[in-house]
């Protein structure tokens, strides 16, 4: 098979125009799961589909050191965090995240979010019209800081929420948003490093099960603690994506509009189908378009030569909608998640493989649990009018969102037990 190389054009413009569908559309045009192109003059290889994902997550073939594009290191990820580690160093750091998110702790976070949501909903009712996306960011920031052992005064909530949000919501921007995201990273890292140092010095006392405590006391393979700056990056690796779950929660509300039969079925149900609904939201709606890695040593796959040092992108959005893995993939159908567990390389909204071994996200239980909290509140505990129901999804934004951020008017809420 010959390599399908798009020699003529740089793909930067096409990618910016359609960040979610660029890889799968180009792959479909070429009839291949792998192709080479140029991005800002650099050669890059793009892959899509479950079989490509299984290759991409083979640590013998790919490394993550140096894979994140520099603009994203200065905004979304920071430097020195788990995303750029390989081998034993990665496994040991990753084990810390899995411990931070163990099932009891996920339940504790769900309770904190429910509490904050109920507090907020009274204010939303009094205000009249509110926009769900930014309001849920505030709810999640309050809850995750409390849960993680990060002190947050009422006066600080808005600033810290804006900073944590700018890390993911502005990182994909190429203009002013990018500068905002870089500035937010600097301030947020200073804030988080200060908390780490206060915990280490004993000035701040937090429960041993809290994320900030575990990060402050984590030991690297050489037995040393992380530097305050790297520990700050890891603390933000817990706070930032938890707040980012606001994106998925806006999509839960959007999916409920489009599927009134499911809204009724869930409202009348006992909660046992909630997970299937939110899993289908994660499969169907866009969030991370792709992930990047670097070829470790030359190898061949599907007749394509992967050269050492080449940056490779794995298409997450397209893999979740690949007709070889999913029946009628464009259809929103939660029932597909009522049966067996999905394949770990076909269902990749937060990466593929095994989270303990690979770079797959350790926060999936958090994201799904918090989406279920939101679903429960939206369908069983409050009555609201969606002011722009089923608004079109803005796919050019990163992350994509329902246009307008999902405005609502809360009409009634039940009494919170
Ligand atoms: C809002 C929902 C979330 C989305 C869409 C998301 C998405 C992702 C994706 C696509 C990756 C990269 C996978 C890869 O590189 O192969 C990732 C990694 C990661 N996520 Fe999440 N995530 C979410 C929530 C969370 C939460 C709640 C946490 C922590 C509490 C978290 C912590 C991390 C960490 C630490 C990594 C790096 C893992 C590694 O490199 O080994 N994420 N996430």
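Q: What amino acid sequence fits the structure above?
A:
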């Amino acid at each position: 098979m010959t390599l399908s190389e798009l020699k003529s054009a740089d793909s930067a413009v096409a990618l910016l125009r359609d960040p979610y569908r660029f890889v799968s559309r180009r792959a479909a045009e070429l009839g291949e799961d792998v192709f080479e192109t140029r991005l800002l003059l650099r050669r890059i290889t793009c892959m899509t589909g479950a079989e490509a994902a299984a290759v991409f997550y083979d640590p013998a073939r790919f490394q993550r050191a140096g894979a994140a594009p520099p603009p994203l290191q200065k905004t979304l990820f920071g430097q020195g965090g788990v995303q750029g580690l390989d081998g034993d160093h990665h496994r040991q750091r990753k084990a810390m995240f899995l411990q931070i998110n163990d099932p009891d702790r996920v339940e504790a976070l769900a309770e904190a979010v429910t509490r904050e949501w109920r507090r907020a909903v009274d204010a939303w009712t009094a205000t009249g019209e509110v926009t769900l996306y930014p309001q849920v960011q505030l709810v999640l920031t309050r809850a995750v800081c409390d849960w993680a052992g990060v002190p947050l005064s009422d006066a600080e909530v808005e600033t810290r929420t804006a900073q944590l949000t700018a890390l993911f919501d502005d990182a994909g921007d190429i203009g002013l948003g990018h500068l905002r995201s870089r500035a937010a990273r600097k301030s947020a890292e200073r804030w988080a490093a200060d908390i780490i140092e206060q915990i280490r010095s004993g000035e701040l006392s937090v429960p041993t099960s809290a994320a900030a405590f575990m990060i402050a006391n984590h030991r690297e393979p050489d037995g040393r603690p992380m530097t305050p700056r790297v520990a700050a990056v890891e603390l933000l690796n817990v706070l930032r994506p938890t707040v980012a779950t606001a994106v998925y929660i806006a999509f839960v509300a959007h999916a409920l509009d489009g599927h009134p039969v499911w809204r009724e079925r869930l409202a009348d149900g006992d909660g046992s189908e909630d997970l299937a609904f939110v899993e289908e939201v994660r499969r169907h709606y866009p969030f991370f378009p792709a992930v990047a890695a670097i070829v470790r040593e030359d190898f061949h796959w599907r007749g394509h030569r992967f050269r050492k040092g080449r940056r490779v992108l794995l298409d997450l959005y397209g893999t979740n909608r690949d007709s070889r893995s999913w029946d009628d993939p464009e259809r929103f159908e939660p029932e597909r998640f009522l049966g067996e567990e999905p394949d770990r390389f076909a269902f990749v909204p937060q990466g593929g493989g095994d989270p303990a071994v690979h770079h797959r996200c350790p926060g999936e239980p958090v994201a799904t649990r918090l989406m279920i909290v939101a679903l429960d509140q939206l369908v069983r505990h409050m009555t609201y009018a969606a002011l722009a129901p089923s608004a079109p999804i803005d796919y050019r934004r990163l992350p994509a969102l329902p246009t307008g951020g999902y405005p609502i008017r809360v009409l009634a809420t039940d009494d919170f037990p």
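Q: And what stands out in the fold?
A: Residues 228-258 form the longest helix (31 residues).
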